[in-house]
Write a structure and sequence with these properties.
Layout (H helix, E strand, L loop, with lengths): L3 E9 L2 E3 L1 H8 L10 E8 L2 E4 L13 E4 L2 E5 L9 H11 L5 E3 L4 H10 L3 E4 L5 H13 L3 E4 L3 H11 L9 H19 L4 E3 L4 H5 L11 H10 L1 H13 L4 E3 L5 H8 L3 H4 L7 H8 L4 H4 L6 H4 L2 H11 L6 H14 L1
Keywords: ATP-binding, Nucleotide-binding
GO molecular function, one term: ATP binding
Protein name: Asparagine synthase C-terminal domain-containing protein
């Protein structure tokens, strides 16, 4: 019998499958994985299979079951229809048997943290917006919160590590997000967690960015941004992999994606309120003050971006973080 190697987790119709369950299922052939959901990369003999959206990185395209180098089936879970609230509750529940939550105190991570009841971690320089917000939200919600407060030297060290692995290392936005996430992943590693629940995808699904308020074609913009999530996932997961972890993304569960995309774009950003449907669900679970709070991007809220600007300036790049990143990227890739 071939050896099975499973990274991540697999479910069918909302029920988590143990590794033994999956092995029994594979006796009918690897095509049996086709209706399965979850976040996984599975190898079984010469078979490689990957979850529908490609949350877990792997050498085959997302949503494929390959054997002998060719695709033999598609992974296309088709769970029963449900409301957005049911979808989110189920998606978080399926992921909550272990791990930690990347927590900023905003509505995305707060709803996940409340439902998961797992340890939470927030990252930010001393006195940063995200730390203050996360600490206040955790107190209000009774969460177990750990705080990571990197120094500027530690930001420089983390930058040097992430530019070696992310796809676009000289892009300041990409590098600043990756650096922030690297501190979350490092904390997870130090505390024995391999799964990190995160709010990725909520902004693109529900309309969380400020530019959506004035978009001339909101539906098209949401669709484009959702498609771009595959690129972002690559960045995030290579950073997590540096620390033996991976980001688990409940908002990208097939149930949540379906329920969200069934809501017209104009309802997702309504009356000047971004992520309107998500906030309405959140109000039934977490304090309204948190459910309605405005978003601040992690790289700004954590203070990591400002630290990168200071590092660039201190290294002779007074107006160009990109120039600084190019210098350290060259140095690290020559290393």
């Amino acid at each position: 019998m071939p050896t099975m190697n499973l990274k991540g987790w697999i479910e069918r119709d909302g029920v988590r499958l143990s590794p033994a369950d999956v092995e029994r299922m594979l006796k009918d052939g690897p095509e049996a994985l086709a209706p399965c959901g979850g976040e996984f990369l599975l190898t079984y003999g010469d078979c490689i299979a990957r979850d529908a959206l490609g949350i877990v990185p792997g050498p085959v395209p997302p949503g494929t079951v390959c054997s002998g180098g060719r695709e033999i089936a598609r992974v296309a879970p088709d769970p029963a229809p449900c409301t957005l609230e049911e979808a989110i509750v189920t998606a978080v529940g399926l992921r909550s048997d272990e791990g930690a939550v990347a927590f900023s105190g905003g509505v995305d991570s707060a709803l996940v943290a409340h439902l998961a009841r797992l340890p939470c971690v927030a990252v930010g320089l001393q006195g940063s917006h995200d730390l203050e917000r996360a600490e206040k939200a955790a107190r209000m919600m009774g969460l177990d919160l750990a705080i990571v407060t990197p120094t500027e030297d530690e930001v420089a060290e983390a930058l040097a590590r992430v530019v070696r692995v992310i796809p676009d290392p000289t892009n300041p936005l990409e590098a600043s997000i990756a650096t922030t996430l690297s501190f979350v992943a490092a904390w997870a590693e130090e505390n024995g967690h391999t799964r990190i629940l995160a709010g990725q995808g909520a902004d693109e699904l529900f309309g969380g960015y400020a530019r959506y308020l004035t978009s001339p074609d909101l539906a098209a913009e949401l669709e484009r941004d959702f498609a771009d999530l595959a690129r972002q996932r690559t960045r995030d997961q290579v950073v997590a992999a540096l620390h033996g972890a991976y980001f688990s993304m409940p908002y990208l569960d097939v149930r949540v994606v379906r329920a969200a995309q069934a809501i017209p774009a104009a309802e997702r950003v309504r009356g000047g309120v971004r992520k309107h449907p998500l906030r309405e669900v959140a109000k039934r679970h977490i304090p309204a003050e948190i459910a309605t709070a405005e978003k601040k991007a992690m790289q700004y809220g954590s203070g990591i971006w400002r630290a990168m600007q200071r590092l660039a300036r201190d290294n002779g790049y007074k107006k160009s973080v990109q120039g600084y990143l190019t210098e350290i990227s060259r140095a690290e890739h020559d290393y």
